[in-house]
Amino acid sequence: MAAEQRMVSFFSPADLTELIQLYSRHPSAVLFAGGTWLLGREQKKIPVLGEQVINIGGIDELTRIHRTERFLEIGAAAPLSLLLEQAKRVLPVCLYRCLTSIGTPAIRNLAGLGGNLSNPEYRMDSFPVLFALEAQVELIGPEGSRRLPIPRLIDSENNLRLKPGELIQRILIPVESFTEELYWKHEHNFWMPETHLSVTAVARMEKGTISEARLVFSAFRRLVMRHRELEAELVGRVPPLSQRETEYLYQELDSFFQAAGPIPRELDRRMLILKALDFLSNLGSEATIPVPGRY
Ligand SMILES: Cc1cc2nc3c(=O)[nH]c(=O)nc-3n(C[C@H](O)[C@H](O)[C@H](O)COP(=O)(O)OP(=O)(O)OC[C@H]3O[C@@H](n4cnc5c(N)ncnc54)[C@H](O)[C@@H]3O)c2cc1C
Predict the structure, then answer these.
(1) Which of 74, 120, 234, 235 has the maximal Cβ count within 10 Å?
(2) Which long-range contacts (C-beta less than 8 Å, at least 24 apart) are formed by 225-230?
(3) For 211-231, how does the pLDDT look when each residue is reduced to its tens digit (9 = 90+)?
(4) Residue 127 and residue 216: Cα distance in Å, rounded?
(5) Ligand 1 atom nearest to 79, measured from its CA
(6) Could you report the per-residue pLDDT of 159-189, keeping only the tens digit for each?
(7) Residues 33/54, Cβ–Cβ less than 8 Å
(8) What gap in Å lies between CA 49 and CA 8, rounded to an integer?
(9) Percent helix, strand, coil in the chain (nearest 5)?
């Protein structure tokens, strides 16, 4: 039987205006940024991209990295390696650690944050970290631009909330300083999302007391969880935490993961909880203090 012949139209718009016009005429086209997920996901098979593909990798407005007083603004298609190099001094430590854990140097030369956040199936590595940093995405489309906090980028069914013809233009990370940060990731293999777990934590200490703490957990590249009530309860506590406090936090997080996830395996819940408790227990000690420039 003869193989089916399929024509693929590959567009390379010159700038953002041309991209918006083109994408609004072809809203079902596939956006091709670094292409590392689109080409890599089929592993050894020949990738099938779709009938219309729009290359957004070379568009200047999507690759700029800029810092204002309020935000670190990162173009959605700026390669991660460029970001790690250009913004090393201003990137939050947890994000720096997360980005250096993505793929290999060759992958990071192509891959960008826009493609990492817009995966149609999975919540990739930067999602929980940008959630903890309370970053926003700036979307642009035929109706203009709008901003969404990271968790609002997906709906309750885990689908992206992008309208037809809309794409991520920039990621805006508030310029804030935390005294302590953690990024921890565990997985057997990137292609086995069922083995993936991560914890992102940021905290601010003032005179030995926790004045702010944010904890975001992810599991199986599907669940991203933040327990805001527990974060509020942490404010005012003085580390090291007592055994009673640790036991309370353990029970609270365990019930949260059983209900909110759910994360059925006790071992997975345990790993997430112990990482978070380790971070909280060591707040204020040398172990968790990020030294600028030493990643
Ligand atoms: C060997 C290997 C290892 C990897 N390891 C990791 C890992 O450890 N952690 C991890 O998180 N990922 C990993 N990845 C997956 C991938 O490299 C990253 O998720 C990467 O950030 C994707 O970015 P990209 O620019 O290549 O996206 P692309 O592959 O170009 O696009 C990904 C998806 O996002 C859409 N898209 C792209 N840009 C936009 C935009 N601006 N607006 C709206 N939609 C958009 C595309 O249409 C597509 O559906 C790995 C991939 C490979 C091949």
Answers:
(1) 74
(2) 225/256, 225/257, 225/260, 225/261, 226/131, 226/132, 226/151, 227/252, 227/253, 227/256, 227/260, 230/256
(3) 999 999 999 999 999 999 999
(4) 10
(5) 25
(6) 999 999 999 999 999 999 899 999 999 999 9
(7) no
(8) 8
(9) 35, 25, 40
Here the tokens at position 113 are 């944050």
Q: Which residue has the tokens 């956006």?
A: 31
Closest Cα to atom 18, ligand 1: which residue?
A: 116
CA distance 12 to 33: 11
Please tell me the distance from the alpha carbon of residue 186 to that of residue 265, in angstroms, as a whole number. 15
Mean pLDDT (the chain, rounded): 92
With vertex at residue 184, the alpha carbon angle to CA 182 and CA 187, rounded to the nearest 5 degrees, is: 170
User: Distance between CA atoms of 241 and 278, rounded to whole angstroms?
Assistant: 10
Q: Is the CB of 141 under 6 A from ligand 1?
A: no
Tell me how far apart the alpha carbons of residues 175 and 133 are, in angstroms, rounded to a whole number. 9
List the residue whose alpha carbon is closest to atom 2 of ligand 1.
103
- Closest to 80 (Cα-Cα) out of 36, 39, 113: 113
Contact present, 284 and 174 (Cβ < 8 Å): no
Kindly compute the dihedral angle of the four CA atoms of residues 275, 129, 288, 220, in this order, to the nearest 10 degrees.
20
CA-to-CA separations, 291 to 53, 71, 224, 276, 288, in angstroms, rounded = 43, 22, 28, 20, 9
The whole-model pTM stands at: 0.95
Which of 36, 62, 97 has most ligand 1 atoms within 8 Å of CB, for mutation?
Answer: 36
> Distance between CA 200 and CA 42 in Å, rounded?
29
Residue 241, C-beta contacts closer than 8 angstroms, at least 6 positions apart: 249, 277, 280, 281
CA–centroid distance, 42 to ligand 1, in Å, is: 13
**Alpha-carbon gap, residue 100 to 152, rounded angstroms:** 25
